[in-house]
Amino acid sequence: MIEVRNYVGGKWVDAAGERFRSVNPVTGEPLAEAPATDAAGVDAAVRAARRAFDDGDWRFRKGSERGAALLKLADELERRARPISELIAREMGKPVRVNLAREVEGAVDKLRFFAGAARLLEGRVTGSTASEIWDMELPEPVGVAALIIPWNDPVDLAVRKLGGALAAGCTTIVKSSEITPASTAALVEAAHDCGAFPPGVVNLVSGPGEPTGDALVDHAGVDKISFTGSTATGMRIMGRAAKRLARVSLECGGKFPAIICADADLELCLDAVSYGAFMYGGQSCTACTRLVVDRRVYDRVATGIVERSKKLPIGDPLDPNVLIGPMASRRQYDKAVEYIRLGTAEGGRILVGGIPNDPSSLFLPPTVFVDLPPDGRVAREEIFGPVLAIHAVDSEQEALAVANNTPYGLGGSIWSRDIGRALRLARRLDVADIWINTHYVRHVETSFGGRHHSGIGRELGMAGVEEYLSWKRLCIDTREKFHLKSWFEAGRA
Ligand code: NAD
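# nicotinamide-adenine-dinucleotide complex -> structure
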């Protein structure tokens, strides 16, 4: 069993109170044990981060120096990529074939981007009323940042926040998910072992939302909360943070539609959306969950998706050929199964997949629904499992009405060979991230975020560093006489 400890002020420490276990979703065996950090343990981590920010030199270091530290962490993580990838596979079931390149090596690339970004922070000299006045806006780090992450990308999602916050000059407390404490701790271990960060700049606490997350969100020493997770938790965090006006950014849930026009390259589209829907069991915020299909190609799309769904390799996530592992936890499995039941109750017809006969394992096959009402719960709510709904439509307007009929606004894709049509649809699809004729293509240089119930704020790109900045205005008057002098003189006369 892996023993996970908190990391506070540059040291691995034991936290008092209860402990919890993460479980290998393939075997059902406990994998790691970690502290369910209480308010006192959270306080220790926040104090360490506070000291490092207020009394340390991290925030005053040149961007090149903070960048050099991030490069060292990138190198250390790269050296450990294979074992960390296998640990993720064992702790939450994401296949190594998917997580090695997409998650761990992707995180290395992100750290290298943020290392460069640290050198590119710019202030501004703004329009002054006279040339003798220097009116400036200076970026400063916002302070101590609490970074709360979910389990589905336990290294990559931490790096998106950590890279941006550290590049900006913040000090940090990472809170891992209770499903994946060991995977995120492996990242923090690389940060410790690379020796590049002063004590207190990077801290780690393990534990669930209550008590650990709540204590972190409520702590007066935390200036900024950056959260990735479900919309319900995001709303709760925002409500609590509002009581002390702590800054918040939220990356929340999604319900990704793919609009498939009759003129789409269907082979390309079907390969991409079946991968996009079912890769690691649909446990991705940008998983493709709904196909909104021109009725003229509906049958071909339905047949093509079913064929591909049957061929996707499911099994042991450590097997290099496997694309779909188990659901990450019993809770996630039960939630997806509940939605499959609900889909049938709502009048949906299952073309392939469905609820397995043996509920003792956490493997769920790709499941494809047709005939679901577009305004039903299965069509509108986030499932976070391998469940895809196909809706037939007769016009662009109807396609948009169905695609936009959810509270979420994270992303979507559009499939058409007519670029005018694709761009017209893209303007009207009410989401923050759109792929045209592709899926899962992303670059660290371009920022990412959601609208509506999918969140507030951006990650990655320079915007992902700016989230951790606070602006200060600095005005310098070089004139030798106070500009209201004549006003005083007039008063005396
Ligand atoms: P979750 O909301 O249950 O938990 C996320 C994190 O918040 C965990 O660390 C959890 O311990 C913590 N938490 C829970 N209650 C808290 C509280 N009261 N205060 C502070 N922290 C608290 O979500 P999850 O099941 O771990 O993750 C799945 C969700 O994450 C899905 O909705 C998915 O769409 C979303 N997600 C979004 C993105 C994105 O970029 N938009 C990326 C990945 C996942």
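# post-check
The two ends are 86 Å apart (CA to CA).
Residues 102 and 234 are 25 Å apart (CA to CA).
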